[in-house]
Structure formats: structure tokens, C-alpha cells
Amino acid sequence: MPVGNTNGSMINAGPSVKTDKRKGAAFAVAPAVARGRYPMPIASAATQTLGSVDPPQATGRYPSPVWATAKASSLASSDDILNLKEADYQEELGSSPLPQIAGQAGTTEVDNREIYQIIREVALPHSGKDLYSALQAQDGFGLCYGLVLFSQASGHLGKVLELMRSRDASTFQQLLGSASDELVATTTASTWEERLRPVQGDNLWSDKWQARFKAAGDVPAFQAAQNEAAIESQFRPMLNIAGQLGLDTDRTLAMAYDRVITRGLGGGLRWIMEVAGPLRDLAQQSFALNFLGFPNLRSFQNAAGLETTGSLNPETYGAIVASLRQNGCPMPSAQDFTGRMISAASGAVRTRLLRLRDSTVLQDVHYVIDGD
Hints:
Number of strands: 7
Number of helices: 15
Oligomer: single chain
Largest sheet: 3 strands, antiparallel
Distance between the termini: 9 Å
Radius of gyration: 21 Å
Order of helices and strands: EEHEHEEEHHHHHHHHHHHHHE
Structural class: mainly alpha
Strand order of the largest sheet: 4-5-6
């Protein structure tokens, strides 16, 4: 809903994902079934042309032929370890401020098929050929598991396990063992430290637990759970702010999602804003607020319906950029963001982003992210 300010221009608190009218809200969840709305993709998703969507059925919202054609481009050899989480990983968008350093209209709606295609292309350097059974132990993060290496410490592994259990409780207990409920309770605990505790006397990166997780990765219902976790717990929470910034193509969203995988939701978005955003110093920030007719961040946040922290957090940053663009102020394009992110990256990050820049699976499709 646009909000008026003191100079008569309009601000928008943020774009919302357009949804399939038969589905309802973007986060509506169908009743849990073996494969649900996130059917098992075969290891290979070419870009899908969106058209009519088949009604829900036994194999899920999108029948297997749609997902079974998914593919990812190849991965060039590299001396870098490409899939480690980064030391300043942060999920919280929160109220911590960003450091103050001295496009084309969409044509395609972002549905789960489109999102999965992006995730599948981004995932290759992270999970490799093992895909849903990928395992990695990393100091400070514990066990990292599956398609995009959901980490134990961050809580993403716990979310995956909850979804796995809800889809097939019997197989879940059979493969994960008698301590499967303790496993879920531990990995969904409220703090980073609690989530890293041993289960049944063993760390999750022990050989015993890794063997169990690897077996679970072969179960179609559990692969669908990983798809759901990646789409709903990582990609969709990123999507609105990314869209506000102007990252509205499959390629730029893929690059943004890659940063979220290794830095967390808040950490990944902050990195993009710091290295590629248009408000990177106090002068730019002050100009933006004055242009929109607000004396300070708190007044803008209040008018936009955001938490009035007075800090330039990702939600506020995205809302300001979207409002500037809405009011005719030139903002960086998706292509500008691509170049700026690659220029700022180094090592494994640069290798992954260059691969996405050159990917032939990604087609530079412009998405409709703004709501009506």
C-alpha cells in the first residue's frame, strides 16, 4: 500500500510476490503429503515457460515432468573450496545498521518452478553431485546437509528435519533412529550453541549420524522437504528486499541467493547493499530521504510501516530504494548489480558469481515481484 509523505510523493513499504490466484497468499502451505507442493526434482531444471498450472494431485502441485527436466550448468575446476559458510554469517535482518562507507518491467511471475530452477543452478558448487545427500562439517556451523548445505548452527537444518518428519514420520524414525525426536528438538533449539549440542551422545558430524543423513537424502519425500525449506525459508524471505533493490532477473536473484547461502539472509543482503547498493555513504542517504520528503530515517520508517529503529537495516534500505525508483529517481539496474557484485568479490565467492554470470541455464528473465 503506497504511503504519502510530506512532499506529496509516494512510498511503497515494499513489493510483494504475486501469487497464483488459485493458491492464495504466497506462504500458503498445502497439507503435508509424501511429496507435497515441492516434488522431487531429478538431478537435472531447464528454464520453464510458465503457462497453466495443473491442479494439485498425488505428486504435488507441480507434476514430476515439470521438475524432472531441471538441469544445472557444469562446474569448472577450481583450487578454491567453494561451499564454506562465511565467518560473518547472519540470518537476522534486525535493526543493526549497515556500515556507512566514506529496470525493465517484469514479464514472468515468480512461482515455485521458477524459484526451484534458480536454486538448482546455484546449488551445484555447494552440494555438488551428491545434491540432497551432500554432507559437510564446518567449524562453528556443525553439520551442513543437503541441496544448499543447510547448516546445523543457523537452524536451517532443524527446519529441514521438521519438514522431513511431517512428510513421512515413519521413514524419518526408521532412518534417523530412536533419537529422531531428540534430533529435531536439538536442531530447532533457540540458540546457536544449543543447536550444536550432541544428540544421543554423538555430534551430528560423527560417522554414525552422517550415514543416517546420507540415507535420508535418497528419500523422495525428504528431497521435497529440502526444496520447501530452500524456497520458503531462504529464497522467499530474500525475494522482496532483492526486488526492491532492483534484482528482478533470474540471474541477479541467483547471485543474491548464493550470498544468502553462505552469509545468511541478513548477512547476504547486507553484503549486496554495501558493495552494490546506491546508498553507500551519508550524503547519498541524506539525499534520498530529502528527495522523498523525510527529515530522518525514523520518519520514513514510520510512514512505510517499518520498525522505527532509526537504523538503515535491510528492510529500510530496500524500501527507500523502491520508493526512489517509484518516484522517478534513477537507480542501479540488474546489470549494474551484477557487475558491482563481481567486482567486489574475491576467491570462492568470485568464482561462484562468475559462473552464475556466464550460466546458460539462467536466461535473464525479468520477473514480476511488485504486487498490485
